[in-house]
Amino acid sequence: MLDIVPAANKRPRLLLVDDDTNVIHLMAKTLLPLGQVQFATSGEDALRLAREDVPDLILLDAEMPGMSGFQVCEEMKHDPLLSDVPVIFVTSHSEESMEATGLALGAADFITKPIRPAILAARVNNHLSFKLARDQLKRLAFLDGLTGVANRRVFDETLPKEWARSQRKQQPLSVMMVDVDHFKAYNDCYGHLQGDSALRSVAQVLAATVKRPADLVARYGGEEFVVLLPETALEGAQQLAADMLQAVAQLALPHQASSVASHVTVSIGCASLGPCAASLSDEIVAIPFDISDEPAGVGVSLLQAADAALYDAKGTGRARSVFYALCTPAS
Hints:
The protein has helices at 21-31, 43-52, 69-77, 96-104, 117-141, 152-169, 183-190, 192-209, 234-251, 300-315, and strands spanning 13-17, 36-40, 57-61, 87-91, 109-112, 173-180, 216-221, 224-230, 266-274, 284-288, 321-327. The chain is an alpha/beta fold. The protein folds into two domains: 13-141, Response regulator (Rossmann fold, 3-Layer(aba) Sandwich), CATH 3.40.50.2300; 152-327, 2-Layer Sandwich (Alpha-Beta Plaits), CATH 3.30.70.
């Protein structure tokens, strides 16, 4: 399941950006004990690497040929994917105006060259500690208090980012809506405390079924969950939906008020974005889709399609999955 924020037991990722490879080598040697190190020698490469694998901290040369460090920082702070990443400017200039410019752009700190390894390590370690504390608070704020999976806010913030990433990398994207069948009747029969326990069990089974770090399971509201699956095409989503239906059934939670089964079941609606095969099975609703039709480019169309698929799953007997394919032109 997707990490809402980096976990405390993961080594931090540091991105070092400088057009002088000697400086990069010195910083890397100094900082390797503190985390994983990547480097870039231009602003353009720095942004590309940061978007592919978001770092925990960036050390950024202020003056580089082409795109300056100031321009890189400004673009980062306007990118929802990177806006929270701390930036430390590293420069050979010590003028107050340079430092003021960097801080005004949102930089966390300012270090002057020549680099003093002990000072560099101490400052980076301090900023990583601050970020870890902030991330831990975010983790608590972004979890659903009842079920322990991510909350609706996390999904609402993550979907636009994954939609944008999908378009940038030309990769498929899938969304599932999962609803516990006849849950009101379950609460009426067994009481709300037992209902809460059942929701927790279902949530944890859904979270355990997804295997990749990038996948996100979140509580969408009430007895409804949403699953975001980056770089997952229709076939992968179909297999995961089958696994989820089976895993929930294997919980064997009694539900004598259900008209579907004697145990708790779920219905799943799934929508997948990407090029479609020449022929799809009759069980899949294929919708020709033009990316330019997406409102504001935030993934609303995909979510609406998953919700429509869920409506169909519930309307055709429940305890099943229905799939919509938003078919984009093959590249």
